Amino acid sequence: MENRHTLFQTRHLIRVFPLLIALIAVILISLIGWLVGLLFLLMISIYLIIRLNPEVIFPFSIIMLSIGAQLPAEIGQLVSMTFSFIILIYWFFWRISTGFKLMPLDRTLTTFILFTIIWLIMSSLLSSHFTLGIYVTFRQIIFFLMIYIIYDWLRTKTQIRMMFNSFAIMGVILSMFILFGFAQAGFEVISIDQFIVPIRYTFFNINPNALGTNLLYSVPVVAAMLIYNLVDLKKPILILMFSITLGALFLTFSRASWLGVAVSLILILFTTKYGRWFLGVSFIISFLIGVVSEDLRNLLEILLRFEHGLSHRDILWKAAWEMFSENPVFGTGPWTYRYYMFSLSRVIPGSWSADVILGLKSAHNLYLTKAAEMGIGGIITSLGIYLIFAHRLIATFKTTSDPYFRGILFAFSAILAGSFARSMFEVSGFLFLWTTLIMVTRIGQINKGHNDSFSQVPPLPSLNNRVNS
């Protein structure tokens, strides 16, 4: 029988736990610095998790892995390695207790993963940066191992709920940091120096565009909780959570993330009658205000950074296309875009454009980046994950009658559309994309009655019997 009293399902978690952790982090970081503050935060979080419910280690570690991947190099590697190690160790000892009866991976996903790894190896062998290619391939194998562990762990609907709710919790925690920085800066939105530009808020030197990736998954989840009644929380609390996450997203001034979230929210609202009315009225009011008020139009141009245009993405796209044209089959090798981009961009060294694009690691377009680095195989893998996801969503919708899980599927459909829109301008967020795909796959398997083996797997070992009793 599923344990329905897990920490991530109760109202007390979303109401208290994120605020508690964020408050502790803010206090520690302001008093003793980022490095020591983060280490204390990790220890406190892990202790609370183990005391309250060890199973929460999985969704919590996924949150920390996603955050760690975007932190500056030294801290990011420390956080990512720590929580990767926690996941591997916990899963290993759990599997020892079950006699290593591994759950077979979905056939379609297995084929896709094997194709990706084989193509990475072939692209690396033919690349002038062979060592780098092998390193990237090894990292990708570790990534897929993590994906399999998540797949193996998501055995019940309760665990799916836990993982789904963790997206909202991640958004609230990150948003608290962003709003804290906003308050420290005196609530300034626009900087007036040589130019009038918006101030892009983040925390710990994380790229605002990368931070927007996390909120791309959090904001639609909170919106779905509010609209589809997916959690046992009062409306004012959910509205506050939505306002906090949406406000933090706005302060990142990541236009690609704005686009992705806008697409997601439009699709979520469009599924309800009142949502469609809200969209229609909002569009009419926005149009009238834009026509009547020139000051608001000017403010909108500043906030959307119209003067920056595509932020030199057109230069990056042309360079990526030339790389693909010269190496259409296997590309130049994994992670090699940075080595060829500058020479193919034809910008003048020392110019403003050169300073902007110097050191960039991708073409700010998922498909062109993969095409340049891996050729045709890169296009197949980058588009393939979205096609598999869309097909899996449609198939799962047909077999799902539970209103709660239909709400989750609506949320994931919106996230898929938003993520696809964002992938035209940014390259990140694969851990969340794969995690949501695994969740959809698991829901479909349970609906079809393919979860007999789930019930035969004993629960994760608990360090606190009172929780599971």
How would you portray this structure in words?
By secondary structure, the chain is mainly alpha-helical. It has one domain. Helices cover 73% and strands 1% of the residues. It has helices at 11-32, 34-52, 57-68, 73-97, 107-125, 130-153, 157-184, 208-228, 235-252, 255-270, 273-292, 294-303, 313-326, 337-345, 352-357, 366-399, 403-422, 430-447, 452-456, 465-468, and strands at residues 190-192, 196-198. Strands 1-2 form a two-stranded antiparallel sheet. A hairpin with a 3-residue loop joins strand 1 and strand 2 (196-198).
SSE pattern, N- to C-terminal: HHHHHHHEEHHHHHHHHHHHHH
Overall average residue pLDDT: 79
Q: pLDDT under 50 segments (min length 5)?
A: 1-15, 452-469
Give the neighbour order of strands across the main sheet.
1-2
Secondary-structure class:
mainly alpha
Number of helices: 20
Quick structural gist:
The protein is mostly helical.
Write the layout of secondary structure elements.
Elements: H1 11-32, H2 34-52, H3 57-68, H4 73-97, H5 107-125, H6 130-153, H7 157-184, E1 190-192, E2 196-198, H8 208-228, H9 235-252, H10 255-270, H11 273-292, H12 294-303, H13 313-326, H14 337-345, H15 352-357, H16 366-399, H17 403-422, H18 430-447, H19 452-456, H20 465-468
Antiparallel strand pairs: 1-2
Helix pairs in contact: 1-2, 1-7, 3-4, 3-7, 5-6, 5-16, 6-18, 7-8, 7-9, 7-18, 8-9, 8-10, 8-17, 10-11, 10-17, 13-14, 13-16, 16-17, 16-18, 17-18
Keywords:
469 residues; mainly alpha; disordered C terminus; 20 helices; 73% helix; disordered N terminus
